C-alpha cells in the first residue's frame, strides 16, 4: 500500500502539477575600470522558468528593437493613404472567404472600417458609402427595430452598439437617424437588464458581463434614452468587478483583470458619472503596468504580450481618467512610437497587432483610435452626456488624426452630432 501511494504521489508531482520547464540562468555582468584594468563583477543571477510566454516575449522584444533601431532618430509617419486603400477596398469588393467566420459580426466589420476611415481619412467616407451603410444596418433591424449580427439572426446587445456607432458616422444621411426605433430598443434593454445591475447580451441565452453593461449604456446615451430605471444597481455590479490587481474582470468577484473589460467598466462608470466609486489608485497602477519599457506598447493582462488593440482599450481607460483630473497613467510618446514603428508595414496596408502579425479591420480601428489618444489631452465636460473636450498636444502633418471621445470610441464631432439630434427628439 505504501509503495502504491508513493508511486501515485510521484505521478502527481511529476505529471499533473504543471509541465516541467527548463530553467535558464541569466547572468548580468557589469564592467568597471580600476587602475587601467577591466574587472568583471557578477551583480545578479536570476533563475527564470523558460515558459512559452517568456520565449514569445523575448521574440517580440527582438522584433520591436529591430524596428526601433531601423527608424532610430527619425519621425516615422502614419501611412494613412496606404491604409485608406485597404479600408476602401473592403467597401468596394467582396471580402475574402475566411471572413465568413464573422458572419454574425457584420455591424462590427462596418463599424471598424468606417470608424478607421473617419479617424484617419475623414473625407474618404463618402455620402454614397454612408448611404449603403445605413441601408445595410437598417435592413438588419427589420422588422422589430432591433439590431443583430445579420439578417434573420437573434438581436444582441454587442451588435446593437456596433450598429448605432456605425450609424453615428453617417452624418444622418437620408434622415437615417430618424429610422432608429428608440422605443423598441429601450424596451428591449429593460428586458435584458438583470436585478443585480447587469445586462444580458441577448434574451434568454446571453451572458451577463461588463461588455453588456457598456454596450447598453453607450447605446442609451447615444440615443438619449437613459433613465434611472435603466441605470439601477449598475454601478454596484461594476464595483464588484474590480479585482485585487486594480483592473476589472468580466464578472463580479473572480475573473482576472483584463484590458477590454476594464475599459468597459471604466467607460460605463464615466457614462454614469460615477468615476470616483472605483479604487482609482490601484486602477492607475494596473494600467501603468500594462506598458512595457522594451516594446513601449500595451498588454491586456499581467504577463501577456503587447497587442496594438490595447492602445485603445488601455489607452482610452487612461484618457478617461485623465479627463476626470487624475492625470496620465501611460506614456503617450512611447505608445505612439510603438504604433508607428511596430504596428504598420510598408509591405502591406492596414494596422497590425505586433511585428510578424497580419493587419485586420479590428486592429486597424482600435490602433487608429489609440494613436489619436496620443495626440490629444482630455477634459470631461460638465453635464450628463459623457462628452469630453480634446486639446491637441501634438500636431504633425503626417498624422493629424481626428479627435475622439475615449468613452465611446467615436470621433468627437460624430458623437456630439447624434446625441444632439436625439436630444432634440425628446
UniProtKB/TrEMBL annotation:
<dbReference type="InterPro" id="IPR008930">
    <property type="entry name" value="Terpenoid_cyclase/PrenylTrfase"/>
</dbReference>
<keyword id="KW-0677">Repeat</keyword>
<dbReference type="InterPro" id="IPR045089">
    <property type="entry name" value="PGGT1B-like"/>
</dbReference>
<keyword id="KW-0862">Zinc</keyword>
<keyword id="KW-0479">Metal-binding</keyword>
<keyword id="KW-0808">Transferase</keyword>
<dbReference type="InterPro" id="IPR026872">
    <property type="entry name" value="FTB"/>
</dbReference>
<dbReference type="GO" id="GO:0097354">
    <property type="term" value="P:prenylation"/>
</dbReference>
<feature type="domain" description="Prenyltransferase alpha-alpha toroid">
    <location>
        <begin position="80"/>
        <end position="409"/>
    </location>
</feature>
<dbReference type="GO" id="GO:0008270">
    <property type="term" value="F:zinc ion binding"/>
</dbReference>
<dbReference type="GO" id="GO:0004660">
    <property type="term" value="F:protein farnesyltransferase activity"/>
</dbReference>
<dbReference type="InterPro" id="IPR001330">
    <property type="entry name" value="Prenyltrans"/>
</dbReference>
<protein>
    <recommendedName>
        <fullName>Protein farnesyltransferase subunit beta</fullName>
        <ecNumber>2.5.1.58</ecNumber>
    </recommendedName>
</protein>
<comment type="subunit">
    <text>Heterodimer of an alpha and a beta subunit.</text>
</comment>
<comment type="similarity">
    <text>Belongs to the protein prenyltransferase subunit beta family.</text>
</comment>
<comment type="function">
    <text>Catalyzes the transfer of a farnesyl moiety from farnesyl diphosphate to a cysteine at the fourth position from the C-terminus of several proteins. The beta subunit is responsible for peptide-binding.</text>
</comment>
<keyword id="KW-0637">Prenyltransferase</keyword>
<dbReference type="Pfam" id="PF00432">
    <property type="entry name" value="Prenyltrans"/>
</dbReference>
<dbReference type="GO" id="GO:0005965">
    <property type="term" value="C:protein farnesyltransferase complex"/>
</dbReference>
Amino acid at each position: 500500500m505504501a509503495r502504491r501511494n508513493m508511486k501515485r504521489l510521484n505521478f502527481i508531482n511529476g505529471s499533473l502539477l504543471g509541465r516541467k520547464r527548463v530553467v535558464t540562468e541569466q547572468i548580468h555582468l557589469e564592467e568597471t575600470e580600476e587602475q587601467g584594468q577591466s574587472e568583471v563583477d557578477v551583480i545578479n543571477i536570476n533563475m527564470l522558468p523558460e515558459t512559452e510566454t517568456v520565449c514569445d516575449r523575448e521574440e517580440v522584444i527582438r522584433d520591436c528593437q529591430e524596428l526601433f533601431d531601423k527608424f532610430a532618430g527619425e519621425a516615422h509617419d502614419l501611412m494613412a493613404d496606404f491604409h485608406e486603400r485597404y479600408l476602401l477596398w473592403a467597401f468596394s469588393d467582396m471580402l475574402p472567404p475566411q471572413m465568413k467566420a464573422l458572419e454574425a459580426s457584420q455591424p462590427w466589420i462596418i463599424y471598424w472600417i468606417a470608424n478607421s476611415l473617419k479617424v484617419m481619412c475623414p473625407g474618404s467616407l463618402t455620402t454614397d458609402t454612408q448611404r449603403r451603410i445605413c441601408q445595410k444596418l437598417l435592413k438588419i433591424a427589420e422588422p422589430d427595430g432591433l439590431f443583430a449580427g445579420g439578417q434573420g439572426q437573434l438581436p444582441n446587445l454587442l451588435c446593437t452598439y456596433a450598429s448605432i456607432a456605425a450609424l453615428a458616422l453617417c452624418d444622418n444621411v437620408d434622415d437615417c437617424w430618424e429610422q432608429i426605433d428608440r422605443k423598441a430598443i429601450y424596451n428591449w434593454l429593460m428586458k435584458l437588464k438583470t436585478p443585480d445591475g447587469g445586462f444580458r447580451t441577448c434574451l434568454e441565452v446571453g451572458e451577463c458581463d461588463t461588455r453588456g453593461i457598456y454596450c447598453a449604456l453607450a447605446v442609451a446615451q447615444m440615443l438619449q434614452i437613459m433613465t434611472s430605471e435603466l441605470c439601477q444597481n449598475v454601478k454596484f455590479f461594476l464595483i464588484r468587478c474590480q479585482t485585487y490587481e486594480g483592473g476589472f474582470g468580466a464578472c463580479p468577484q473572480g475573473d482576472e483583470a483584463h484590458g477590454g473589460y476594464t475599459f468597459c467598466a471604466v467607460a460605463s462608470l464615466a457614462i454614469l458619472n460615477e468615476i470616483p466609486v472605483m479604487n482609482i489608485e490601484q486602477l492607475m497602477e494596473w494600467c501603468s503596468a500594462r506598458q512595457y519599457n522594451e516594446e513601449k506598447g500595451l498588454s491586456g493582462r499581467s504577463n501577456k504580450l503587447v497587442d496594438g488593440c490595447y492602445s485603445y482599450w488601455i489607452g482610452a481607460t487612461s484618457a478617461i481618467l485623465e479627463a476626470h483630473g487624475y492625470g496620465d497613467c501611460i506614456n503617450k510618446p512611447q505608445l505612439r512610437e510603438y504604433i508607428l514603428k511596430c504596428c504598420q508595414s510598408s509591405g502591406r496596408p492596414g494596422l497590425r497587432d505586433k511585428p510578424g502579425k497580419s493587419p485586420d479591420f479590428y486592429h486597424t480601428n482600435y490602433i487608429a483610435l489609440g494613436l489619436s489618444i496620443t495626440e490629444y489631452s482630455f477634459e470631461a465636460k460638465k453635464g450628463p452626456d459623457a462628452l469630453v473636450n480634446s486639446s491637441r498636444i501634438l500636431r504633425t502633418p503626417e498624422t493629424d488624426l481626428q479627435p475622439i471621445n475615449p468613452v465611446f470610441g467615436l470621433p468627437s464631432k460624430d458623437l456630439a452630432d447624434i446625441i444632439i439630434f436625439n436630444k432634440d427628439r425628446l
